[in-house]
Amino acid sequence: MNELDTRAERFLESIRAEGEAACAAIKEETERTINSQLDETRKAENARVERTLRFETERARTRANRDLSAARMAARAKLADQRQKIADETFAKAREQLAAFVAGKDYAAWLQKEAASLAETLGENAKITARAADLPLLKNVELPAGTVLEADDSITLGGLKGANHAKGVAADDTLEARLEAQHDWFLENAGLEINI
């Protein structure tokens, strides 16, 4: 019985060894399958996360660019308003200084000189207009033949307007026109550029 027991024991050992080897193979195959599926799942999730990250990054960049653009536009508008306010204040002060010049003693001589120059430019049979208050200052100005001097209520600050329809020539030499002509020059040269 000893020999039979030994053989039975060896047989059981052999079966046990085969069972353990089969279990080890099954365990190894199971782990390989699980790891393979985990790798596929990780790759799929990483790709999904990467797509989501790219999408969200682009969306954030677009939103930031839009916000930056809106902020720049608002800053430009604010600067443009400030620039216009400075220009308006500057031109209001210039207008006040021109009004003071018109009320001063040098205006009459200037107006007479300008009237003589304008009359020479327009030639004979022209029409020169001035404020009604300025007409007495122009009594002694020599005018070409046929040139008339009239009041013009549209001239508010001072200066002259003139026209010679026969020559097809007209001139606006009013202080208002001279001041208005300085707007573009002022904005270009005053250092008030808007660069944002």
Describe the structure.
The protein has 196 residues and is an alpha+beta fold. Helices cover 68% and strands 10% of the residues. It contains three helices and four strands, in the order ααββββα. It has helices at 2-103, 106-122, 175-189, and strands at residues 127-130, 148-151, 159-164, 169-174. It has a four-stranded mixed sheet with strand order 2-1-3-4. The protein is rod-shaped. The model has no long low-confidence stretch (mean pLDDT 87).
Strand elements, count: 4
Instruction: Report helical residue fraction.
Output: 55-70%
Radius of gyration: 49 Å
How many DSSP helices? 3
Net shape = rod-shaped
Order of helices and strands: HHEEEEH
Mean pLDDT: 87
Q: Numbering strands along the chain, what is their spatial order in the largest sheet?
A: 2-1-3-4
- The class by helix and strand makeup works out as alpha+beta
Main β-sheet description: 4 strands, mixed
| Gap from first CA to last CA | 105 Å
Strand residues, percent: 5-15%
Which spans have pLDDT < 50 for at least 5 consecutive residues?
Answer: none
